[in-house]
Structure formats: structure tokens, C-alpha cells
Amino acid sequence: MATASQAPRTKQEQQQQQQRREQERRNTLRFIINEFNDYGHRTTVHGLGHMYQSTDTCRKLFWLCITLVSCGACAVHIYFIVANYMETPVNSVILQGRIRQEFPDVTFCNMYPISESVQYHAAKEIHGHISNRWKYFSGFIRAGNFSANDKVGRLKVARTFMQIFWASEDTRDLAHDDDLFIVQCSYKNRQCSNKQFKMVQNLRYWNCYTFAPKFDGGHEDRQVYSSNEDEGLSLILYTNSHLRNVHPKNGLTTIRDVYYDYEDEILNHLGDQSNFLERYLENYNLSLNQLLAGDKLEPDGMRVILHEKDTYPHMDMNSVIVGNGDFSNINFYMERKLSKNRPEHPCRVETSGTEDRMEYMAYYPGSNIRYPGPRPPPNFKKFKRARLDYIVDKSQALFWSACHCYTHIMPFQCFNTELCYHCRDGTDPAEIERTLRHIWCHDRVYEHRLKHKIFDYFRDSQNFQPCSVNNYNVKMGSSAWPSQRDIQFLINQYVLPAFQKETVGARSYNHILKNTSVAPIHDIISQESSTTAAEFLVARTSNWTAARGVTVRRGLAESVNSVLL
């Protein structure tokens, strides 16, 4: 009986408990609804307040949709913020006192690629070489689609030819020699010479020279102790860029050349459009350096590039222009950046193996027939791999896949016979036609593909940045130099001794100038007296460059990044 009486009581208790739970849920739901209603009347969320204020069902649905869309957009925005945060590096800057600054490699490029002395003394030989070796306008223009109806068009074609000429010929003789333009050189109060400079050629400046403080015995003294004048590199350079002032008959005209236009008009009327470059060279109406510069306006002087030891001097690196007639003080400080090699954001750990070296053409590569052995020829030099080298690799691969040849506008690792602008025989119509096809393909890839892909290459190159890299921040100040007080000392101390030691002889690299004697410093000495120099030319063709490190009191900053920027 007791058991029978307890069962209904237990069932009744269960029902009461269930009713209490349902009542609690209703109260909770009512509380949430009341709170949400209160929030809806006071909130500034788009659409929610209007939904509660509206009495019409359609309006409520409309504002409900607006609210949902706004909340969805907010959620997407928050997602991208979080994703961007997860990809953002966590940077910690460690200031370490007394980190050694290393003196960088310093590359000098003359803003005038071709020596003005060579142009003056060897004008006939250059003209004869092009006439005999290339037969340029009698073959190249007729085989191609270039227009020669106006001077602007012909100058454009002539600039194209100069690129072909550079890619096909040994141009070292036409450009500057380091033993001729280095008037005085000192590094840490120690005399240096052209032995510390190595040639690196490129299309824009032809002969560039890289200074490395490596003296006899192979010892390198790169440590920078202070910012004193004696702790850096000091150079007095002769740029050989104002000979037109010495020889007015070959000077530039500043008015329209009526004779030349009239002569062109007659020859065009007669159908002769094949010898424009020959007449251009013969009359010396313009400097070849202007032809190479194209429509770029650049000052006279030297481009100076500071870059990490043993790396290639890419023209896109930080550089300054040291003007003629100036003293330029280049100050730099080194910043060492270390990056964590993480799987999601890798960097390249440097080793001593060959994979961390790039082998670029340093100067005229010649033909692969000359070097049949497995070892590379001496004019190919190995450089430490840097981030920009990845961009070069991808760009060269793009040209090869499209045209089966390489571009000459950036460093290359091949013989010049594999360049798109290389022409084996400038007198053979079939060879000229083949060259024109490669040029057309090259220019099309450059204009329509490379310019669009270069940003992707630059972004992808972050993963190929070395985990440890030295960056050099450069600042330069300049002032007019030499002063009237210093010019006599400069002439007596450097110019006249260099004149007396200068060897007047044939150029040594190739056969183009085999019968030409070139002595640039002789050209600024008076022909009447060997002890008289033109002050104006000495001032306008010289510059004094000093490069030294800046001592950082708090030490150098090492940025430890989780991702490369």
C-alpha cells in the first residue's frame, strides 16, 4: 500500500518539476526577448532600430534584411582583420652595442658610358668598323619594320642598334678604363689602385667598377671603427665627359641643324635611307652618349652603388649620383636584419655551397666555342645570392620560355650568343632577319608580360631573402669642388703627374680600336705647353668622393622578423 501510494506522489512531483523547468525556460526566453527589444530600441545597428519602430510587417522584414546584411559584412570584415593579424610579423628589435659595421662593396658607373676621348680620337675607326662589320642601314632597316622617314624614328632605330652592338661586340675599349679615370684613391689612409677594382658590365653604363678593400695577400679590412675621415674610401675621379668643350668643331649644336635636315630630305627623296648612322658618326652631330641615354635627362658624374660584400651591383639598389665639379660625402650605416625561418614564412639559410652563388657575366662573355671545357671562363664571376637575383632568374626564364633567348637589360648567366639582341653577322640578311624576330619577341615580352609579372616576382622573392642580410642606408651631402684655392694644388699634385705617367698606346681589349692611341688626361693638357691644364675642364671633369660609415651610439638594430617584408 505504501508503495502504491508513493508512485502517484512521485509522478506528481515529476510533473511539477517539469512545469517548473518549462516556466524557467519561458521566463528566460521572455527575459531575452525583453532585453533584445530594449536593445533594439536603443541600438545604432543599421536597420534594427527601424525594425522595432515599424508597425508594418513588410517594413519589419525589410529592416531585418538590412540588419542581416550589415551583420554579415561586419563578420567578413572582422575575419579579414583577424587573418591579416595572423599573417603580420611579430617584430622585436634588439639593440646590441658594438656590433661591427662592415664596409660594403662600392660600385662606380660613369653616367657617360662611352669615353669622350675615344669618340674624338677614334671616330673614323668606329665609323669604319660599323660600315664594314655591320652594313647597318643597308641591311637592318630594309629587313625590319623600322621607319626611317623622320629623324626621331631613325634615332630610335639607332638606339636599338647600339643595344645590338653592345650585346654582340666587345665594348670594353669604347668605355672607361679604371686605370685612366682613377686619379687618386685611398682607403683608411692606405693607397689603393685599379687592382682593388673589378669590372662589371651592364647595358646602361657599360663599364662599371666595384671596389673591394682586398689588398696584397688577400686580406680584407672591412671593419668600420669610427666615422673619421681616415676610416673610409676617398677617390678623386676623372670622368672624361666634356671633350666637346676642347674641340668646338665637334660640339653639340643648340639650334636646329638646317644643313642636316636639308641633307636628310634630299637623301630621303632619292630613296637613300640606309646610311643615317654612318653620316651621324661621320659628322659627329650628337654624342653617342646622348644616343645611349635616349630621352632620359641625367646629370654628369658617377652613379655610386653601395651593396653587401660579394653581391651583384643591381641598378635597382640604393644609389647616389656624384656630380662633376662636386665634393660628395657619402655616409652610411649598416642594419643587419635577421629573419626566423618558419614553414609558413620561410627564408633562405645561407650555406657555403654553390646554391648560394650566382654566376653572372662580369664583362664581355665572348662565345661558348672559345670555352669548350667544363670550367666557366674567367669573365663570368660568382656573386653571393640576394633577393633581387630571384627576380632576375624568373625574368630570364620568362624570356627564354617565350623567345628561346635571354634579355640583356638585366644580368645574365649565358654567353652573348644566347641574347635576344645578339647578331652574329651584321652583313648577312638572313642573320639580320633572325635577330629582328628575336628583338620583336623580346620587346613584346618586356612590354606586355614582364611589366605585369614583375610585382608578383618581387612578392614571391620574399621567401628567397637570406635569413641574415646587411642593408646599407645611405645619405649624401655635396658641395662645389674644387675651389679656386684647391684647383692649382689638384693640377700640380694629381693631374700633371698622371699626365706624365699616362701611356699613350693602343687599346688592348679588341680589334675595333687597334690603331687608336687614347690618352684621356692628355686631352685636358694644353697642346702648346705640357705644364698647362685647362682649369675649367679640370673642374668640370673631376669629382671627389668620400664614403665612410657612421658610428651609431646605441649600436645597430637587429630586426627579428617572423616574415620577410
From TrEMBL:
It is a multi-pass membrane protein. The keyword ATP-binding does not apply. The chain crosses the membrane at residues 61-82. GO terms for molecular function: ligand-gated sodium channel activity. Gene3D superfamilies: Acid-sensing ion channels like domains. It is found in: Membrane. Residues 1-24 are annotated as: Disordered. This is Amiloride-sensitive sodium channel.
